[in-house]
Amino acid sequence: MQKITLTAGPYAAAQNNNISLSQTGASGALTLNGTTAGVLDLPRRVLFTNSGDNSSVSFVVTGTTWGNSPVTETIAGNASTAYTNTDFLTVSAIAITGASAAPNALTVGTNTVAGTAWARLDSWANAASVNFQTKVTGTINYDIQCTLDDPNGHNGQGSNVTGPNGVGSVSIAGVVWDSTLPGVTGATTGMTINMNFAPVYVRALINSWTGSGSMTMYVMQQGVVSA
Q1: Is the previous residue joined to 10 through a cis bond, with omega within 30 degrees of 0?
Q2: pLDDT tens, 112-161?
Q3: Does 156 lie in the same domain as 197?
Q4: Residue finishing a domain among 87, 110, 133
Q5: What is the pTM of this model?
Q6: Contacts of 159 (CB under 8 A, 6+ apart)
Q7: CA–CA separation, 95 and 164 (whole Å)
Q8: At 192, which CATH number?
């Protein structure tokens, strides 16, 4: 068997305008003029804070995620806040689509939500049992999540298809994660647990943290031959 190590944090403090300061984006794209200029400390969610009703437009975020993989996600505008489903390490562009008029002023930054890298499990292992151990430093709140989706060509139902993002597969932003299957939601301390099936991917989702809060998660799947 092979142990996989996933880490989260410590993160820089969340700022709602560290990617883009308040602007309307009349040119069809937002200027990345925040203190980070679109280069974040660690992969994490991108937060949109709208000063008025921007439901007539959408924002297309382009950048990279874990492993410097390119990723694009569309966020619907609203009258309050919204954040991406993807953890962005860099943001290279934010385009505005859906309306000819400039939207109400908004800022783009970060919040206290982030995911670890994804651990790909072995669908052909002799056993389906997966063990998890987490270790927590400081104050942090997390879920353990899993999915049967695979942007690299698995359709989530057990058959191989063309990928990445080919027929039957999903985009990175479109992967659906489930926090209930392993039974760890809103945890604040370290623990050791087991689940008796092997999903395609697992990760930890950080819901919030304070200061230097961080965590490490070890994943070990039974029936896998060590490299």
Answers
A1: yes
A2: 999 999 999 987 887 678 999 999 999 999 999 999 998 886 444 444 44
A3: yes
A4: 110
A5: 0.89
A6: 168
A7: 24
A8: 2.60.120
Residues 77 and 124 in one domain: no
State which residues form the domain around 145. 3-8+116-221
Q: Tell me which of 110, 134, 164 is where a domain ends.
A: 110
Give the DSSP letter string of the chain. Answer: --EEEEEE---PPP-TTSSEEEE--TTSB----STTTTEEEEEEPEEEEESS--TT-EEEEEEE-GGG-EEEEEEE--SSEEE-SS-EEEEEEEEEES-SSPPPPEEEEE-S-EE-PPEEP-TT-S---EEEEEEEEEEEEEEEEEES-BTTTB-SSS-B-STTT-TT---TTTPPPBSSSSS--SB-S-EEEEESS--SEEEEEEEEEEEEEEEEEEEEETT----
Nearest CA-CA partner of 192 in 208, 216, 174, 157? 216
pLDDT at position 160: 44
Considering all CA atoms of the chain, what is the largest pairwise distance in Å, rounded to the nearest integer?
A: 58
- Whose tokens are 């070890």? That residue is 218
Q: What is the residue-averaged pLDDT of the chain?
A: 89
Top pLDDT among 222 and 102 is at 222
Q: How far apart are CA 175 and CA 147, in angstroms?
A: 7
Is 29 contained in some domain?
yes
